[in-house]
Amino acid sequence: MEKGPNIFLAWLSAHRLTAAAGLFCALLGVLIFWLYGLPGEAIVYLIGLCLVGIAFFGALSFLRFWRKHKTLCTMEEGILMAAESLPDTTTAIEEDYQRPAGTRRSPMLPQTS
């Protein structure tokens, strides 16, 4: 996995379904409040609460993802293993696990034997 700002994109890619579900719930809440004819302040309050919750739990998740990435990159230098028995990578964390073995295979690429 690349270093720098691309680690955020890798995290977002790994959690895109969760982000979409959070956005859907927030929009559903706004729609319900609007249909009941509640004041605009209540809708703004709902959006604010959703954003605070999403930011808090998203930051915790990203921090955990970044720490795991940092640890795996540190371990990369000292690990030697055979790469033939490892499965294809599907996420950025799996790429980090397989990098020490010298494999950065993708399911889209043909396997070499």
Largest sheet: none
Separation, N- and C-terminal Cα atoms: 24 Å
Measured on Cα atoms, how large is the radius of gyration? 20 Å
Helix and strand succession? HHHH
Report strand %: under 5%
Q: Which spans of ≥5 residues are poorly predicted at pLDDT below 50? A: 103-113
Give the overall shape: elongated
Helix content: 55-70%
Tell me, rounded to a whole number, the average pLDDT: 77
Number of helices: 4
What structural category do the secondary elements indicate? mainly alpha
Query: How many extended strands?
Result: 0
List keywords for this structure.
mainly alpha, 4 helices
Task: Give the helix/strand layout.
Blueprint: H1 6-14, H2 16-35, H3 40-75, H4 92-98
Helix pairs in contact: 2-3
Give a structural overview.
The protein has helices at residues 6-14, 16-35, 40-75, 92-98. The chain has 113 residues and is mostly helical. 2% of the residues are buried.
What's the quick description here?
The chain is mostly helical. The chain has helices at 6-14, 16-35, 40-75, 92-98.
